[in-house]
């Protein structure tokens, strides 16, 4: 049977997820080696281009207007300022630049036109441009594609069953519809989730099942661990266990062998040794730079020191396009 499958059953996913941890890591590491260059890690930079004041009620999110989290609301940034950040990220060695907006959905207005300009500008710098702007129509996805968007981030966050406990202002189906619109526009899909929301192992298994049985696997799957922010309903959630993170990453790697699996939010809580286990288990992408969207992240220099220590190097931009045919299919 091929390793690249979209017909996983929930039972199969459950069996992989529940494999004894060291066996699971070994299996994931073997799959990783077969399909990817294990010495490379993609370095992405995030920038919050419109911060806070969001109408949604995502229980984890410091940017939802209804929670008092101390996040300052900031209108959409100017294009020139964004391009300066992008250039700095590029100079520091980042190859993907992801712009996030605290929007429920994109509206067809001047702000969207400005985002299209930003996408165009960042693409011209030679960076892989990614956006995460909330829900999109098919036409909006096409406009972003025409402007040069490489990838769109839109997370499922958790299982369909648990979704309503975390977010009530939109549905799982709304999320899937946007993902479909992104695909149709020919933009690559970045879609993952969060652990530590209070979900069960069964919810994690179901989310991984949904991701790995989409018509095409997302090109990247961010695995976030909850950054519990004061003022959000989840502020007192217990810290996630590093072994759970490793288990999620390893299972994702086995289910979606060629996908970039991103060790995303929550890295500040992990030692270099713990992150090394995540890379061993198949993670091959990180967000670098001292801020995620609104919360802190390890300093760039610390990450580069970690790369040196572990013998990792940053992955070049647009590598898939350059190497079509060189990997096993
Ligand atoms: N508003 C858009 C949306 O929700 O799709 C884009 C920005 S939103 C902040 C992007 C993603 O960040 C969310 O889907 C969620 O997975 C992640 N995220 C937000 N707050 C987080 C937190 N406190 N800890 C971990 N991940 C978080
Ligand atoms: C993703 O999966 N994680 C990033 C990115 N996609 C947009 C966002 C993490 C946000 C963490 C909380 C914050 O900094 O506001
Ligand atoms: Fe708004 Fe996105 Fe935060 Fe939800 S995750 S509150 S949609 S910014």
Reconstruct the topology from this structure:
Elements: H1 10-17, H2 21-35, E1 40-50, H3 79-91, E2 96-101, H4 110-124, E3 128-132, H5 138-147, E4 151-153, H6 160-166, H7 172-184, E5 188-190, E6 193-195, H8 201-212, E7 220-225, H9 242-255, E8 260-263, H10 272-280, E9 285-288, H11 300-310, E10 313-314, H12 319-322
Parallel strand pairs: 1-2, 1-9, 1-10, 2-3, 3-4, 4-5, 6-7, 7-8, 8-9
Helix pairs in contact: 1-8, 2-9, 3-4, 5-7, 8-9
Bound molecules: S-adenosylmethionine, 6-(5-methyl-2-OXO-imidazolidin-4-yl)-hexanoic acid and iron/sulfur cluster.
The site of 6-(5-methyl-2-OXO-imidazolidin-4-yl)-hexanoic acid has 17 residues, from strand 2 and strand 7.
How far apart are the first and last residues' alpha carbons, in Å? 13 Å
The helical percent reads: 25-40%
CATH class: Alpha Beta
How big a fraction of the residues is strand?
A: 5-15%
Chain-averaged pLDDT: 96
Count structural domains: 1
Task: Give the low-confidence spans.
Answer: 324-329
Note the main attributes of this structure.
329 residues; alpha/beta; TIM Barrel; 10-stranded parallel beta sheet; 12 helices; 10 strands; disordered C terminus; binds S-adenosylmethionine; binds 6-(5-methyl-2-OXO-imidazolidin-4-yl)-hexanoic acid; binds iron/sulfur cluster
